[in-house]
Amino acid sequence: MKKCILLCLVASVMMLYACQTQSTRQEASTEPAVKIWTKEQAKAWVDEHGWLRGANFNPSTAINQLETWQAESFDPETIDRELGWAEEIGLNCMRVYLHHVAWEVDKEGFKNRMKQYLDIADSHGIKTIFVFFDDCWNPTYKAGKQPDPKPGVHNSGWVRDPGELIFLDENLMPLLEEYVKDVLTTFKDDKRIAIWDLYNEPGNNNLKNSSMPLLRNVFRWGWEVRPSQPLSAGVWNLSLSDLNKFQVENSDIITYHNYKGPEEHQAAIDTLKLIGRPLVCTEYMARRNNSLFQNIMPILKQENIGAINWGLVDGKSNTKYAWSEPIPDGSEPPLWFHEIFRKDGTPYKQEEVDLIKSLTGAQ
Prior knowledge:
It contains 13 helices and eight strands. By secondary structure, the protein is an alpha/beta fold.
């Protein structure tokens, strides 16, 4: 069955690659003149940045993107401390989620906090992948104080962006366009930003192709600004064929998620390499699933594929607990699902940190 799925995926990607030029020609009359990077531009980007390795990061004091970015809960001291731990083990890139509501409430303050974050990250030699939209976890949200974590529940307070509101508010799409273009225009030439990840896991939560209009729009808005950094949206689910097709055809570099063991991860790499663009794995490492630093990170380094695991420090997001396996009393899980460090900066597993340092060349 797995072999059949892989063969289907290979055939699908090869078909996409073969029709890419024709598809681009057909869309030329309606899309912005400056669109996807050439493969030469993509190669120049990877030559400049080298091997990216890092984590998906929100400070341990934030339960979600709003708590990370709102003025009353923005926590530069924790950000500085925790990125310092990342620097010590040789990580050089963090993937960080934004949220349009934090911008909507306080546009200039939001961008100033982004600048402050970038200053802190840069002081630790860390570049940033910013994520705009997200179809994962809770469908509703509001500005202001965010909920407390539910004990033992993975990402109990994480919120989608824009979530259900996209189907309820006809005025939201123009607001989202203003948001994306404002942020991209402000930071379009900031060399501290490695990638703009336009949409995390489009189609998740059974949204499927209903996420396509926003996915198409966010790429179009990105092309109209055309920042100096690459635009991408990661493929993550083989069953979402229409979304996958659009994502791989229109991303400057190919990003993807894989929480499987080494054999299946290598098969995914071999397939995605057929597209002929640089690869960055923007989510991996789930210990219960045999996606480990020990068996995946060496593969990614050997292949020169960006290696961005989920989670840096145990905190309010509760992602040390596994998906759909809550521990209601909030006690320590027998095996952490994600995260590298405890709240005090000590490693969850010293042997993992030792391996990471050996791969990154950290002293």
